[in-house]
Automatic annotation (TrEMBL):
The chain crosses the membrane at residues 21-43, 55-75, 95-116, 122-141, 180-198, 210-230, 236-257, 295-316, 322-338, 358-377. It is a multi-pass membrane protein. Its main location: membrane. The keyword Protease does not apply. It is found in: Cell membrane. One of its GO terms (cellular component) is plasma membrane. InterPro entries: Poly_Biosynth_Transport. Keywords: Cell membrane, Membrane, Transmembrane, Transmembrane helix. This is O-antigen/teichoic acid export membrane protein.
Amino acid sequence: MKHFSLPLPLPGARMAWLSGLGALASRLYVYLSGFLAIFLMAASVPPARFGEYSVYQSVLEVALVVATLGSSLLFSRNAASAPPGVTRGDVVRTLSIGLPLATVLATVILTVQRLPVGDAPFAILVVTLAVFAFNSLRLSFSRGLGHSGLLNLEAGIRSTVLVAGVGVCAAVHFDLGVAHLLLINLIAVVVVCLAVGLPANGEAPPMGRAALGLASQAGATVYSLLMFLLRKSDLLIVASFMPLSYVGAFKLAFLLAEAPSQFVQAFLVTKTPAMLETEAGNFTAAKLRLARHSFLLGCGLFVGLAALISVAAPLLKLGNEARTIFLCIAPYFLLRTYTIHHEMVLSLKTSMGSLGQWALLEVALRLASYVVVASLFPGKPHYVFFIACLSDFALYETRMRLHFGFFPIARLLARRQAS
């Protein structure tokens, strides 16, 4: 049997290797362009104005979850099913329900953040939200079909447009306001929308009535909101009780520290079809090598990022504070380069109800951690990531044990000792 199986995996292995290399290259482009955009804005815009723009961007991210009814995961899960599990009717229905709700949510958050509603920045934010939501659903559908190229590149495209816009304004000494930055961001989202229709992204959802159940979309919305609270709302939490100058430094440090796990995620996205076929019976120790290699890649990337922020800090108006925050949150995001593999497999294989329950537990732990840190270390909210590092490791190892029957870290260590 061995001589029959040997020649067959080679073409697939080569294709998988090239696909993974392409994903890492695309993520490198995304972060180089993203870092350049952030550094350019941090060097060109006053700290308070940059912090305000950061709040608008965070509002856009959380509103996007509601605008899509958290259905990006459902679109990926059901894209390749037969008969079609996602149709254009799902796109229309999702946006017609989600966009008004998202607009209300954005209004509430901005009011709580003491930012104006109904002015030019708000109008630009709403238009950006509509285009961004369509892009997200369409690219998630392509991911389920195995086409993840533009999904991995779209953030880089947006950052490139932002760099070009901010660079031109800085060159002509134009005083950039928050509305100008948001307008450049809108143009960037429209550019991505134009690229969505290219043949390389696969077929669009077929015509037909909505196939997804509203109950499943409601569950997906709850789960996605909880995950946003866990992964993306730290900036909004910090902005509620810290000065805007600190918010800008926190955003810069957060983006840098998050980069390695985003590299790993971009690679794992290309493995979506294989992850959908993963079961307890075929989840061998060899498949966990990907988690180990991801962690080693993260270690190398963090060394480079630490050097980068050390060199760049003196050049930025908020660089020294950003460097201090980065060093504190780096252990958590380094661990994420390992646990993100578990998170993605579980999100594709676990029921929405179970995902929501675990996400609720994680959110409760994070909020409790903020309360503890705020009481013990006033003015140092980034210390919360020390607690999150320990809790995330315990939770994801436990979830993998309950779903697949083994602790990944134990199997990895046992395999290493055996070799």
